[in-house]
Design goal:
Blueprint lengths: L4 H9 L7 H10 L5 E4 L6 H12 L9 E4 L3 H18 L3 E3 L4 H6 L9 E4 L1 H10 L9 E5 L1 H6 L3 H11 L6 E6 L4 H11 L4 E4 L1 H4 L3 E7 L5 H10 L8 E4 L3 H13 L5 E4 L5 H12 L5 E4 L14 E4 L8 H6 L11 E6 L4 H10 L3 E5 L2
Parallel strand pairs: 1-6, 1-7, 2-4, 2-5, 3-4, 5-6, 8-13, 8-14, 9-11, 9-12, 10-11, 12-13
Family: Belongs to the DEAD box helicase family.
Protein name: DEAD-box ATP-dependent RNA helicase CshB
GO cellular component, one term: cytosol
Length: 367
């Protein structure tokens, strides 16, 4: 594995003395442009795993887009953009993150048609191609991150349609990443894109033992059960994420906590505009918030090392999302987070399914 000198300088600046296992495995496959499915636990370095071989292979001194990275949310676009900004201090390459200001960027010609890497959702990059086409003759890589969420959004077919429109003649490497990438989804992707892909599955090897504290809902009142937990003597929060399924439920929890005099609290959902979501994202990074109430939108791919508590106000509709929720904490050796699940009798069967699919999880009844 030979890494460019300037890319090594970036790794040294971030104190990456040794690449993580997923990064080594992905590097060996993508550097020779093979197709790939990569399933690895949340917080194990998947983002850098695909960025390293791409940045190592692209030809910085030549024009033309060589990599497209597709993600399901605007928040992940901004996170990737920030990571590339750090790396770019050492490599000096061009990239373009397609944001909500797409029409303005096109009108004012404020985007780089010669970017080496484009980061986008499939909706935005498809819109750009219709309004102001970019040449992809030099394209080498298409990465789809959080692919199971993209599949839930019914966007895999949209990606295939976009790829077909490009009429790419050269050999492009397709790679798909997630902490939950099951065999039936892999089969669906191979059939849809007419590819064969190598598989990296590090879940069983890298998953940590995680304790889930079960709290039975009292008097069929989730809100009151939540308040009792937050006010208990054992609860000493630094940064708490409270997950709920629906945006209206998130707002309801937020209002209830405010009415009970909780401070430094925000809520985060798809109902908020992009500017407000970005503001909250920044406040979390700057440690201005103690309590964040959110939908599963926030459970995907966002990297924060300061989460002290995860509270599952309810179980996700797609039980695979539970793994992404609880992966928001225990990402740092310095901060061991606690995870709670509020449940009632109707949740018992779902909890059993989660137990059977995730042998690294231990459930303990607190109440």
């Amino acid at each position: 594995m030979k890494i460019k000198i300037n890319l090594n300088k970036y790794l040294e600046s971030e104190k990456f003395n040794n690449l993580l296992e997923v990064q080594k495995d992905v590097f060996s496959i993508l550097e020779v442009k093979n197709n790939l499915f990569c399933q690895s636990p949340t917080g194990t370095g998947k983002t850098l795993a695909y960025l390293l071989p791409i940045l190592n292979q692209i030809e910085m001194d030549k024009k033309g887009v060589e990599a497209i990275i597709l993600v399901p949310t605007n928040e992940l676009i901004h996170q990737l953009k920030n990571q590339l900004l750090k790396i770019n201090k050492y490599l000096n390459f061009s990239y373009f993150a397609i944001t909500k200001n797409l029409d303005y960027d096109i009108e004012k010609n404020k985007y780089n048609k010669e970017a080496k890497i484009i980061i986008s959702t499939i909706d935005k990059i498809s819109s750009l191609q219709k309004k102001s086409p970019i040449s992809y003759k030099k394209l080498k890589y298409i990465v789809v991150d959080e692919v199971d969420m993209i599949d839930n959004f019914k966007q895999l077919e949209q990606i295939k349609k976009f790829v077909d429109i490009l009429k790419i003649k050269n050999n492009v490497s397709f790679s798909f990443f997630s902490a939950t990438l099951e065999k039936n989804l892999q089969n669906k992707i191979e059939k849809l894109f007419k590819i064969k892909a190598k598989v990296i599955n590090l879940n069983s090897k890298l998953e940590k033992k995680i304790n889930i504290n079960l709290i039975k809902i009292l008097n069929n009142d989730r809100l009151e059960t939540l308040i009792n937990l937050l006010k208990s003597n054992q609860f000493n929060p630094f940064f708490v994420i409270i997950f709920a399924n629906k945006s209206k439920e998130v707002k309801k929890i937020y209002d209830y906590l405010i009415s009970n005099n909780f401070k430094d609290i925000r809520y985060f959902s798809a109902d908020l505009n992009i500017r407000k979501r970005k503001q909250i994202f920044t406040e979390v990074r700057n440690q201005k918030i103690i309590y964040l109430v959110t939908t599963d939108l926030y459970a995907r791919g966002l990297d924060f090392n300061n989460v002290s508590h995860i509270i599952n106000y309810d179980l996700p509709v797609d039980l695979n999302y539970f793994k992404h929720r609880i992966g928001r904490t225990n990402r740092s050796e310095d901060l061991k987070g606690k995870i709670y699940l509020l449940y009632n009798q109707n949740d018992q069967e779902k909890i059993k399914i989660i137990k059977n699919k995730n042998k690294n999880l231990t459930f303990k009844n607190l109440i």
